[in-house]
Each structure stands twice: as C-alpha cells, then as structure tokens.
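Hello forum,

I keep getting stuck at the same step: I have a sequence, I want structure tokens, and every attempt I make locally crashes halfway through. Rather than fight my setup again tonight, could one of you with a working pipeline run this one for me? It's a single chain of 652 residues.
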Amino acid sequence: MAFTLSRRSFLASTAGFIALHPFSARAQANQVHLRLMETTDLHVHVFPYDYYADKPVDTVGLARTATIIENTRAESTNALLLDNGDFLQGNPMGDYIAYERGMKDGDMHPVIAAMNTLGFDASTLGNHEFNYGLDFLAKSLAGANYPVVSANVVKTMGATPTEDETLIPPYIILDRELTDGAGEKHPIKIGIIGFVPPQIMNWDRQHLEGKVQTRDIVATAQAYVPQMKEEGAQIIVALSHSGIGAAEAEDMMENASVPLAGVEGIDAVMTGHSHLVFPSPDYDGFPGVDVANGTISGKPAVMGGFWGSHMGLIDLLLERDGNGWRVISHTSEARPISQRNEDRSVTPLVESDQKVLDAAQKEHEATLDYVRRAVGQTDAPLYSYFALVADDPSVQIVSNAQTWYIKQMMQGTENEGLPVLSAAAPFKAGGRGGPDYYTDVPKGDVAIKNVADLYLYPNTVRAVKITGAQVKDWLERSAGMFNQIEAGAQDAPLLNPDFPSYNFDVIDGVTYRIDLSQPSKYDGDGNVAAADANRITDLKFDGQPIDPAAEFIVATNNYRAGGGGTFPGADGSTIVFEGPDTNRDVLVRYIVEEGTISPNADANWSFAPMPGTTALFETGPNAAQYAETIESVTLEPAGESPEGFAVYRMIL
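Reply #2:
Ran it on my machine without issues. Output:
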C-alpha cells in the first residue's frame, strides 16, 4: 500500500531550527531528524470557543494548535502531521452537523475542512467516529485530503487479521524524502497503522451490530506489522486511539498502548483516548512507562491532551542501516496552547491560525444559532437553590439522563438485569461561587447552552458495580455535607462550609433519610471518623430495606468512579463501564430523545424528623420564587447574609 503525496511537511526551512533541537545539530551524513506531530481527541473543537457556555475560551481549539503546528514545521526539515482520532463528535458543532445539517454525498465536514488546511499526512479513527453511524462516517471521510487508516474494525473477518476485509485501509505506507545532516535527500517508506478500542461494539451497538466487528489491538498489530515490513516500511508509527493502561496484554483490552508499543517493528506510538498528557506526571509509576524519557515499552510515545489543548511531538534521530533506517535517539513532549496560572486564570500561549478559522466559520456561526435555539422543553423549572436541603430538579434531570444511558449500555453485557441507580451532585450551589452561583433554567425551552448550567464539567460517564452496603456508605460519605445538630437546637448552622457541593451525591433509585443528630461517619478527606455512625436511615430499594449483599450498577462520572472525593465503592476498582460520552452529551441526547422533559424531583431523600429543632442555610436571593414549591422540608425566610445570600430556616 504505497501512498505518494507532496506534503509541505517536507519543505526545507531550517533557519533557526538547529538552535532549537540538538538532533539537527548532531545529524551527520546518513542521519536525519524527523519530527512526528500529533493531534488527538479534537472532538470537533476547531474554534477556541465553549459552545455550552457560549463564550470564547483559550484552552481549546485546533485553530490554536495549528499555530504550534506551523511553528514546529518551520523549525524542521522533516516532519509528519498525524491525527489520532476522535475528531467527528464531541461538541455542539458535531451534533449540529449530524442532527441538523446532515452529511450528503459531496458535503464537507467542518473539522475535516479545518484539518485539510493544515496538510495532515494521515489519521486514524477514534471510538467517537462511530457515534453517528457508518454512513455519516463514510461521507465525512470522503472529504479528507489525507489517508485515514484503522486496522481492527472489519467488515468481514478472515482466519487472521491480514485476511480481513477492513472497514477502511488498515495501514498506509507513505513515500517520503528526508534531508540528512549533510543536506542530502534520501527516500524513505514510513508505515502508519491505526487502532481503535474494540469496545465500540458495545458503545455504538445500534450503529455497528451486524455491519462490522472488531479485533484485539495487539494481536492485530502483531499480524500486520510484519506485512508492512514486507511491503517496504522502514519506520512504523502506530496511531493508537487507546489509552496508556496495563503493561500485560489482555484480550480485547481498551487501553492497550503499553503492550502495543512492545510489538516488534513498531518504532513510535501516538496515543490518545484518555484525554490526558504524556509525558507528564499523570503516568508516573505505570508499569512499562518511562515518563522522564517519554517512552512506553521502550518506544518513544506521546499523548497530546484533548480538544486541541496540546500538540504532541516526537523527535526522532534516524540513521541509515543498510537499506533501512533505525531510531538511534528520540525525545517526546506535549506542547500546550495555554497555561493555567496560580490564581486559576488562563494565559493563551498562541493566537489562532486564521485559515483554520475561515475553514469552519460558516458552520461555527450556524452552531451558535443551534446552541441558542431550543432542543427540547422542560415542563418545570430547573433550579439548584435548594439542592443541598431537598431533592432537586436540576440534579434529578442529570440522574434521569444517566440512568437512561447506562441502562442502554448494560444491554448485552454480563451486568444486564442488575438494578441501575444513578449518583449526581449539584455543581452550582452558591458557596464560594457567591449568591448568583446557582442553576436557574425557567420552564419552557431548553437550549443546548443551558446544559452547561446543569452540568458544569466535561466529565465522561462511568458505571460502577457495588453492593447495597457500599450504596449506604456512599451516601454516608455524601452526608458529610451537613453539620451534626443536637435535638432541640435552634437555628443551628446546617451546611459544612468545607464540604464542596460537587461531593454531595444524591443516589436515585433508592429512598433514604439523613439523620442530622448523628455525627458524620467520614471526615473531610473521606477517612472513617465515626465507624458506628448511621446518618443514612430507612434506606430502601423497591420499597424494601436494601440488601447489603445485593449488587447494583451506579451511573456516575469518571471523577467519582476513579476515586474523586474518596467515596466507598468508587476507587477505580469497581468500574464496569467507561463511557465514551461526556455527561453533558448524554444530557443533550436525553433531552432531544424525550422532547419534553419532566424534571420534577421525586423526593427520594429527606431529613429524619427532629422535633423542636431548626437549622439555617444560605441560598441565592432568587430562591424566593421557588421556596413554596419545596414540599419535603418546611422552610421560612430568615433574612440575608452580609455576602448577599438569602438565609432560610429549616424546621426539622
């Protein structure tokens, strides 16, 4: 499979480059310096814009990454630009194209148009490329001015991977000319092979079942790499849309980059999928991973963040070895488009590349119209003013969407049939955010940008499998939101100011009460502080006391499931599903699917009665319009705080 293209990635422009990288200074005759540049997990982020918040941002956007790409090219004699997948879906522009404008034969997808302006040499598919179906994918890829490869998605499976009929070409061999340290040009054949998590068959079953199958990443590489060598590939780069995980290969593993890098014949690995950066401290201590040297299984590797936040860069010093080439030295880095300061502000490090913006300007403007327009209706207001004292509609709608999604994802798995619960927390609930820091979406139209009000963070969906006993302890940890209150106390402060609202998980699918006379079982760091405490009482599932040994699936997010907040049952070891979708995207899909949502809180939790006892809490001044609708607690106004919060008295 030879692919010959004239690329500006091989234009000589070495002025100033020698001072910037020692490989160019050291390269001798028969030695060349080759730069491999990576984008990954762009998720349609062409513009430096947050469509959910409807405002420009400095932390995302291919238009910004493009400036680093062009600067890096200008430094180098020899460079390739490669994309590692997940470019077609992931923000409202992607949804606008898929759900509203559509893709007809001959249409150009805006992210492809933007990528074309940069002269990519090759790309692979990520799992999100399949979210809109195979027809949409094919019509989108038709506009690419560069080859797209993926080796482990097959239409017809043969006895071995090399006998498969793959969905798209499994690899490409690029014919290039490299300039050595003496200024001489040499031909070289560079093989590019791509991989995607086999789990797409679960994640996008409705689009893929009966149409394609997937193979194990490492086994597929072991079959194809020798064939690529036979066809003349002298250097092989793996585009691994697969995270950096365990060192030992397991059949059909999702995050297979470490054993993949160990496949003989692969010279460098571009990784992604995990939305992290490599090399970085994120991967300190991982078996087979050397952060200091930027290697995985001894091979140079990189992961360039997500949404255009970084450009991944591998520098190779190659030496002619007979009729071939071998890597004699290498470095890896991820170059960021912005930096976060100590005061949490962000400083942009580059400006946008205008030609990239121009390529998607029309679709950007259409997307702005799209996110500002209703995608559904809510038959009740969505607000978080009382989210810390009563079951709440803004949290309820998130739980409803998570349950809807995870029930679908559990179909056809070994966990199908287990009861699905959902854990969600209020993100905008005053506190340090101030008296206006609350969700408040009125009854009526719901626009996509309103979803940012409902779900602040770009978390991805996870599901964990835990026991009834762990469900109780999860809720005990969550109940650390409240101070202990003595029976008969008057106007006791209710809320623990050091407990963040995003750790106040409400679990839907069970009913329970919180007994404020009890101490918190867990301290602020999640350590057991009062082993015999039982704040969670009357915990029931399906109307019956919960069975401590029963198994439950709990829908949550990657932060919580991976140990964020130190919740019992959520330390990373109980994860049974890692969704490819953000919780925001799931919420949007749910609203589109339902048309009209009914987010009325179901009052599945409340406080245990404490006769003669009252407590005070703060909320936003605009809470007054909803106070009388809160039926699970008795409230009365109690003034205003110096910071401008409304103070309410809760009669327990």
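The chain is about 20% helix and 30% strand. If your local run keeps crashing, start a new thread with the error log.
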